[in-house]
Structure formats: C-alpha cells, structure tokens
Amino acid sequence: MAQYAPTLNPPNTLIPKLPIPNPSFSSISTFRTPKPKSKNFSTISMSVTAGQNQQQHQKPPSLDVLINGARKEEVLGAIKNSSSHCLSETNLHLTVPGLKSKTRGKVRDVYDSGDYLVMVTTDRQSAFDRILASIPFKGQVLNETSLWWFDKTQHITSNAVVSAPDENVTIAKKCSVFPVEFVVRGFLTGSTDTSLWTVYNNGVRNYCGNALPDGLAKSQKLPANILTPTTKAADHDVPVTPDEIVERGLMTQAEYDEVSRKALSLFEYGQVC
Q1: Kind and range of the H or E element at 151?
Q2: Dihedral sign, CA of 65, 71, 72, 77?
Q3: Distance CA 106, CA 122 (A)
Q4: Using the 8-state DSSP alphabet, how is residue 4 labeled?
Q5: Is 15 helix (H, G, I), strand (E, B) or coil?
Q6: Up-side HSE of residue 175: CA atoms within 13 Å toward CB?
Q7: Has this prediction a pTM greater than 0.70?
C-alpha cells in the first residue's frame, strides 16, 4: 500500500511547527480507510514522522519562558518568518488518492474519504461570520486544543476522532449532525445581535425558552447556566426554543433531552477543569 506523508501542499505548510505536544489521540499514528469495496475505491494512509513522535515526549516551555526568556527572539523570529507561509488554503483532493471532495468552511477544509472525514484546520481567522486574515500557527493551536478537549471529555460523551496524523489535521468518523447548535451561557454578556446581553438590554426576558429576571447587569454571572440553542441560516444563527426544535422535527424530545444534558455537563466540566 502506498504511503503518503502528512505534508499539506508544501508551499502553504508552516515551517517550523511550534513545540505543542499532541494529545493522546495522536498515539494512533496511522490512519487507513476500510478495505476497499471495489477496485475503484482508493486507499490512503497517513503517518507521523519520527521527529513528531519525539516531540510528544518533550516538555513544552511555559508561556512565561517563551515571552521573557532567552528563546523570546527565537520564537518571534519563527513567527515572523512564517507569516508568509500561513496555511490559508489546501487542495488535498487534487493530490491524495481516496479523497473524494472538498468542503471549505470558514476555518476548516474538510475532505470526504468514504467512511471518514479528513479535517484540516487552516490558519484562517474568522469572526462575525467573516474571514478576516490568516495567523501563523493558529490552525495548529486550534486543532490541538480541540483534540485535548476531546480527550479530556470522553467520560462525558464519546466523539468521532480517529487520529491526528499532523498538527493541523484530524481524521474523524462520519456522523449525522443535528441541525441545531447548543450554546451554553454562564454570564449575561456579549456584543452581537444574538448575544444574551444585547437581547436582554433590548427588553427581552424570555430567550430561547429561558425566563430571565429583571435587574441583571452586564457581565453578571447567571443564577445557573442556561442553554440558548440556535439553528443555522444562510449567513447567521437563529435563536430557537426547545419546543420549536421538537415541533419542527429537528430533534425528538428524547434526543433534545440527551444532548442538552451533555452540553450542560461539558460546559460545567470546562468551568472547573
């Protein structure tokens, strides 16, 4: 079986990588698709290099050391030299057999390989539903932060992660996605049109099925964490109540109850972790 290195279109790949250790998922160093069902189905293999394996065992320097220590200039130099090599775009479907298509999100490029998805976290920076710029190492940090949390929260809910063959790549099982985003809030804050403080300041006292008392101040801690689910529209998220979710057939009541319970548990775990 042919083997492909995890390099992502060399001109756009960050060099050097920051020494951030991969979580336990990256111990699964090789990914292979299931046995082909026909001669027309290509098989791909991705594996990490020995140098990356050695990196996992090195203790990363603290942020204070990087900012104030002798390595400050080295780190700043690496960032400066990499500014023109941000991973802003990938086209693996043109070079890696077995990848059927590409979906370009605001931050991630997602490739279909049959039973699995290959998700490349780029350096694109998105805010307020817009791509603003590209930031060196941003994709690597975001991908490995996500993997760390997936690893730490497996006791609350399972996840789709199969392996992480590159600092910017996660390979995951395909899943059916509910068309609802579960947003958990612990404080009355925010600045967008759908933020809790904006709607509260405009006089709304029942938001996404949550009754809010009068007299609360901006950035005040809520009496209890609340769920404010949204549905995805073409350009923006639309707030929705639990009853509307079930009435529209987006989820069954049992599905909503389970997902909402896990969403609150994940948020609570993040508050104390």
Answers
A1: helix 138-152
A2: negative
A3: 9
A4: B
A5: coil
A6: 11
A7: no
User: Is residue 41 packed enough to be buried (19+ CB in 10 Å), middle (13-18) or exposed (0-12)?
Assistant: middle
Q: Could you report the per-residue pLDDT of 233-266, keeping only the tens digit for each?
A: 666 788 999 999 999 999 999 999 999 999 999 9
Predicted local distance difference test score (pLDDT) of residue 60: 67
Q: Is 101 exposed, middle or buried (0-12, 13-18, 19+ CB in 10 A)?
A: exposed
Read off φ and ψ for residue 245, nearest 5 degrees: -60, -45
CA angle at 159 for the pair 158 and 162, rounded to the nearest 5°:
125
| CA 117/CA 100 separation, integer angstroms | 10
pLDDT above 90 (res 205):
yes
pLDDT per position as a tens digit, 156-196: 999 999 999 999 999 999 999 899 999 999 999 998 888 89
Contacts of residue 47, defined as CB under 8 A and 6 or more positions apart, other chains included, come to 3, 5, 6, 29, 30, 31, 165
Residue among 163, 186, 195 at smallest CA distance from 266: 186
Are 183 and 229 in contact by the 8 Å Cβ rule? The answer is: yes
